[in-house]
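New to this. Help decode the following:
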Amino acid sequence: QVQLVESGGGSVQAGGSLRLSCATSRRLFSFNAMGWYRQTPGKQRELVAAFTSATSGGRTNYADSVKGRFTISRDFNKNTVDLQMNSLIPEDTAIYYCNVVGMNFVNYWGQGTQVTVSS
């Protein structure tokens, strides 16, 4: 079983920054992909940013709405996946979930962390 522990959510005013971190119970090389998703009430969970492979030079995908503002990173020594969020806007308010995809293509999710951006 894979465990994901998220941290770093909170409340911030528009224009501010937050950094989310996800600690995994397994080495990052054991996953096919890893990233961050978010969800607001009544809407489907959506991709925010992700690495598409476990290799150190893996490609990243970003939602159009966060390009230029958010940056995903990972640390293979610490087995963490981080999301740096800058220039936050109220529309970024959501519960953010860490996600990893195992080599068997099973999805694992963190418990979620709330991000609230006030205008």
User: Anything to note?
Assistant: The chain has a mean pLDDT of 95. The first strand starts at residue 4 and ends at 7. The two ends are 40 Å apart (CA to CA).
